[in-house]
Design brief:
The complex is a heterodimer of chains A (290) and B (321).
Chain A: H1 3-45, H2 49-54, H3 64-73, H4 79-110, H5 116-126, H6 135-144, H7 152-155, H8 162-175, H9 178-186, H10 191-202, H11 204-220, H12 223-228, H13 237-244, H14 254-286
Chain B: H1 4-11, H2 14-42, E1 45-50, E2 53-59, H3 63-70, H4 74-105, H5 114-122, H6 129-140, H7 145-152, H8 168-196, H9 200-208, H10 213-241, H11 245-250, H12 264-273, H13 277-320
Antiparallel strand pairs in B: 1-2
Helix pairs in contact in B: 2-13, 3-13, 4-8, 4-10, 5-8, 6-8, 8-10, 10-13, 12-13
Classes of the chains: A mainly alpha (290), B mainly alpha (321).
Chain lengths: 290, 321
């Protein structure tokens, strides 16, 4: 290489190093920003009310056990019952939504029928309609069906989950050859059995990703559950957490408040950290335009 | 599906197609479509509780709609609130996501630990909005750690905290910031996928032609990902008009101070709780119309773009396994 090329190369190298340093600094700053609130949360959950009122610290306290005892005894805020309720609702709707979305996607992917195109277009159109707009009719219907204050209205509607459907459809297009179905037919399976014992297992990677997404959505859902559930023992976590924000906020034991918030998000954080690889890959595939 | 053999075969299986899509459509009809129609229907009736007495339902035509718009322009104000809070969060969100996505995919920059950074910036997206709002409320409350930090840095004196939630600006900024925090990781990953879908030879030839990073970004990356940017904008707007959890919890349903952070869905929610079904219906219908217009926009955008994108999609699906 000529000497002028060397100099140009060096200049390039320097600007590249500078750009790299700037990127790392900004990224670390935002990584810190994303994590810092949760660090404060976890630290404060281990400190007593008195310590928290004294000021802020990033050194964990020693009152975690005491806070936990207080939370366990708190009958006004049955947070562990809430966790169980949230688990039932989120788990139930994840299973239903993933199974029936695959079911629907399979129907549209494999078969040819007159309304196929219409059905597909219809689901794409309703995908973006917010659930809040039909909330009024939904509550009235649930009241007349006499299932307010039960988990059914929060679980059953998951059978019709357009976004999950779309994800499964995309996945089938990329990795479900129609020949498998035809081979199974030759072996004499009926269509429902083909789906249950051959196709659904093949979809496992996509099913796992969607299970996580729908579970998290269910676990975090606040708007509808708050309108459906009013019995204390039936309340899900987001409803209970929202109740912390009441007129009495300043009188609460802050150690307990932080611990309750922590309990409501830690299960999801643990699952997320274990499966982050799959979740992040799933984000783009689940979108309309990957 | 395209081969004549399979088409001939599948004719006899057509009824199974209906069998497989039936559960979806039955459940959708019962739990979404009927409620939606009933919501429209209710919006034309006067139906509310006055104390313990039920008023109505009496047919009143469009007067519920007139009421929400007349009422001192309240409804327009809540729409404006929602929009303002959304845009305060969205501008930094799209800006940073673009920056991060272009860094993560830069061939020359070759950043390390991108996997770690992606995991960390996406993390807030899986966290319960109710919990994160309550957390921020606690952190920024008069007795929270932010105020004690202000005291220890000597910005405020002890015993005179800055009440973040008594000021319009700080309340809206905190809500917008939570929105931003929840969604910028998601947008980054979406944009990254879109940039990685661009043929790498384009970047390579630009590099050979002596284009600098900003030229490459503005002349190659930006034009090619513009459809996805538009898509992100519209879907975020659809999400934005549904904004509820965060402002509802931060302001304890009040939209305080002085209803400047009351969003459209909070207004709807308040009517649903007070059983004012007529007004709630009218608000829902307007929300539906706005969402429908935006959704149709998305629908046409992705339909036009579907054909040339197919190849990229296939490749990504294979990677998932």
């Amino acid at each position: 290489m000529s000497s002028s090329g060397d100099i140009a190369g060096q200049v390039n190298q320097t600007t590249l190093t500078i750009r790299r340093v700037v990127s790392y600094v900004v990224l670390i700053l935002f990584a810190f920003l994303s994590v810092f609130p949760f660090v404060l949360l976890i630290v404060n959950a281990t400190r007593s009310h008195f310590q928290i009122m004294q000021g802020f610290s990033i050194i964990p306290g020693t009152s975690f056990a005491a806070n936990m005892k207080a939370v366990l005894k708190n009958t006004q805020m049955p947070i562990f019952k809430g966790m169980l309720n949230s688990f039932i609702v989120a788990g139930g709707s994840a299973i239903l939504s993933v199974y029936f979305s695959s079911f629907t996607a399979y129907g549209i992917h494999v078969y040819d029928f007159r309304l196929k195109k219409f059905a597909f277009t219809f689901i794409l159109i309703i995908m973006m309609v917010p659930s809040q707009v039909s909330a009024l009719g939904f509550i009235k219907l649930m009241r007349s069906m006499n299932i307010l204050d039960t988990f059914w209205p929060l679980i059953i509607p998951s059978i019709a989950a357009p976004a999950t459907f779309f994800f499964m459809k995309q996945y089938m297009e990329s990795s479900l050859p129609i020949e498998i179905v035809e081979a199974a037919r030759i072996d004499g399976c009926n269509e429902l059995r083909i789906f249950n014992s051959i196709i659904f297992p093949i979809l496992k990677p996509a099913v796992a990703v969607q299970c996580i997404f729908t579970f998290v959505t269910g676990w975090n859902n606040y708007f509808l559950p708050a309108l459906i559930i009013s019995k204390r023992n039936m309340k899900t976590l987001p409803i209970l957490i929202a109740e912390l924000r009441s007129a009495d906020f300043l009188k609460f034991d802050m150690g307990q408040v932080y611990l309750m918030i922590m309990l409501s998000i830690v299960p999801v954080i643990i699952v997320y950290l274990c499966l982050s690889k799959f979740i992040i890959r799933g984000v783009t595939l689940g979108s309309v335009k990957g | 599906m395209a081969s004549p053999l399979s088409r001939r075969k599948s004719i006899s299986y057509a009824k199974w197609g209906y069998f497989f899509i039936a559960p979806f459509f039955v459940v959708y009809a019962i739990f979404s479509l009927i409620p939606l129609i009933s919501t429209f229907y209710n919006s034309f009736f006067e139906n509310y509780m006055s104390g313990l007495t039920q008023i109505g339902p009496t047919f009143v035509g469009f007067s519920n709609y007139a009421a929400i718009f007349a009422n001192g322009g309240d409804f327009a104000k809540y729409f404006a609130n929602t929009f303002i809070i959304w845009i305060i969060g969205f501008i930094p969100q799209i800006f940073l996501s673009l920056l991060f996505a272009s860094w993560f995919t830069d061939l020359r920059l070759k950043l390390k630990a991108t996997g770690f950074f992606k995991v960390v910036i996406y993390l807030p997206n899986v966290i319960m909005a109710a919990a994160i709002s309550m957390l921020f409320f606690s952190l920024f409350s008069d007795i929270g750690p932010i105020n004690s930090m202000l005291v220890s840095f000597g910005i405020r004196e002890a015993g005179n905290p800055y009440s973040f939630f008594d000021h319009v600006g700080s309340t809206r900024i905190i809500i917008a910031f939570i929105n931003f925090l929840l969604w910028y990781g998601n947008t980054t990953i979406m944009l990254m996928a879109s940039i990685m879908g661009i043929d790498t030879s384009l970047f390579e030839s630009a590099q050979i032609d002596g284009a600098n990073p900003s030229q490459t970004f503005w002349k190659i990356t930006m034009p090619l990902i513009r459809p996805l940017l538009l898509y992100t904008l519209v879907t975020s707007l659809i999400g934005g008009i549904q904004m509820f959890d965060i402002p509802n919890i931060i302001t304890n349903k009040q939209g305080s101070p002085n209803r400047t952070s009351m969003t459209v869905v909070m207004y709807l929610n308040n009517h649903l709780f007070s059983k004012n079904y007529g007004l709630a219906g009218a608000v829902s219908v307007i929300l539906f119309i706005v969402a429908a217009i935006l959704s149709l926009l998305v629908f046409y955008m992705m339909r036009d773009k579907d054909a040339p994108k197919n190849k990229i999609k296939k490749k990504k699906g294979a990677n998932l396994l």
